[in-house]
């Protein structure tokens, strides 16, 4: 197992109990009365950004997380630097502020192609903006700038209802295809981001040695548009091992796997965002030891060294 330099933001030491009960992504067997991770035996001290109940396989695999959400549209005429979009946010105001993530669709696509992700991620305690790009033909570099413009809009210019829910120091990006390439661009140009999740990313640039943002790349084994051998894998390999990173390859998945509900993708994506945007170590067992199962072709990682 490759280990990286510990990520800033102090990891607490995982207990043996946590590793044993939380490290598998496989469903509980019929002989088990409940998901063992439902127990109250977690020993990590609560972090300042922990939001929601202790995570379980059931919670992470459900179509919605523990937070009720609302959504609001953003018109392209009311913003600059990107083409508007849709914001999803938790309605709960009792647990403090939340991290925020901007997500870009791919080449020729609109946000509607990924819209299932908005409420799914927001319901785990995030403010999410799914953007429309200035043009559906925008290239990755432009999409990266638009993702950052969308984050700036959330923090500085969104409605008071949305803005009051956001911790502007805990921001992340994601995107599909050229939007995934855009998320690499954004992470490379703004190292203060807390996480990036490129989905079936496409980019002509293959080396991302400047990326310091914790990055999870999710690729599809059968992707014929952005083949993992020429895109996701070299992208992952080029990110320094001193940066937290993971590569999840979905078994027999095409380039368009993010455009329909995908439980394995969503579970890993939420876990990554919770771990690095919220510094919530309760989610670490869903990432390290590495997840496995029929839906996963391969998983590479620099498991955080506790």
UniProtKB/TrEMBL annotation:
Catalytic activity reads:
(ethylene terephthalate)(n) + H2O = (ethylene terephthalate)(n-1) + 4-[(2-hydroxyethoxy)carbonyl]benzoate + H(+); cutin + H2O = cutin monomers; a butanoate ester + H2O = an aliphatic alcohol + butanoate + H(+)
Question: Which InterPro entries does UniProt cross-reference here?
Answer: AB_hydrolase_fold (IPR029058), FrsA_esterase (IPR050261), PET_hydrolase/cutinase-like (IPR041127)
What highest taxon heads this organism's lineage?
Bacteria
Gene Ontology MF term list = cutinase activity
Kindly state which keywords UniProt assigns to this record, in alphabetical order.
Disulfide bond, Hydrolase, Periplasm, Secreted, Serine esterase, Signal
Under which EC number(s) is this enzyme classified?
3.1.1.101, 3.1.1.74
Alphabetical GO CC annotations of the entry are: extracellular region; periplasmic space
Which positions carry the signal peptide feature in this UniProt record? 1-33
Question: Where is the segment annotated Disordered?
Answer: 32-56
UniProt-listed SUPFAM superfamilies: alpha/beta-Hydrolases
Domain PET hydrolase/cutinase-like, by residue range, is 44-304
Subcellular localization is given as: Periplasm; Secreted
Say which family it is in.
Answer: Belongs to the AB hydrolase superfamily.
Q: What is this protein called?
A: Poly(ethylene terephthalate) hydrolase
Q: What is the lineage of its organism?
A: Bacteria, Bacillati, Actinomycetota, Actinomycetes, Streptosporangiales
């Amino acid at each position: 197992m490759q280990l990286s330099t510990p990520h800033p933001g102090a990891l607490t030491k995982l207990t043996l109990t946590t590793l044993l009960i939380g490290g598998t992504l496989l469903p509980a067997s019929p002989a088990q009365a409940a998901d063992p991770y439902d127990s109250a035996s977690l020993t990590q001290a609560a972090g300042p950004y922990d939001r929601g109940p202790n995570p379980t396989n059931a919670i992470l695999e459900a179509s919605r997380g523990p937070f009720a959400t609302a959504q609001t549209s953003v018109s392209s005429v009311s913003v600059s630097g990107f083409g508007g979009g849709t914001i999803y946010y938790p309605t709960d105001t009792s647990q403090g502020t939340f991290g925020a993530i901007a997500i870009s669709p791919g080449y020729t696509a609109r946000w509607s192609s990924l819209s299932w992700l908005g409420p799914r991620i927001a319901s785990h305690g995030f403010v999410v903006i799914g953007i429309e790009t200035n043009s559906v033909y925008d290239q990755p570099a432009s999409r990266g700038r638009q993702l950052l413009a969308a984050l700036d809009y959330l923090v500085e210019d969104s409605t008071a209802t949305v803005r009051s829910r956001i911790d502007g120091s805990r921001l992340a990006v994601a995107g599909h295809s050229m939007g995934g390439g855009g998320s690499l661009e954004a992470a490379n140009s703004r190292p203060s981001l807390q996480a990036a999740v490129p989905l079936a990313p496409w980019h002509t640039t293959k080396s991302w040695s400047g990326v310091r943002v914790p990055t999870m790349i999710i690729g599809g084994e059968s992707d014929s548009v952005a083949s993992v051998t020429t895109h996701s894998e070299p992208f992952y390999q080029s990110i320094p091992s001193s940066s937290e990173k993971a590569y999840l390859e979905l078994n027999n998945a095409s380039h368009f796997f993010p455009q329909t509900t995908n439980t394995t993708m969503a579970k890993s994506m939420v876990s990554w965002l919770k771990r690095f945007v919220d510094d919530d170590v309760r989610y670490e067992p869903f990432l390290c030891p590495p997840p496995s199962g029929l839906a996963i072709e391969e998983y590479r990682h620099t498991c955080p060294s506790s």
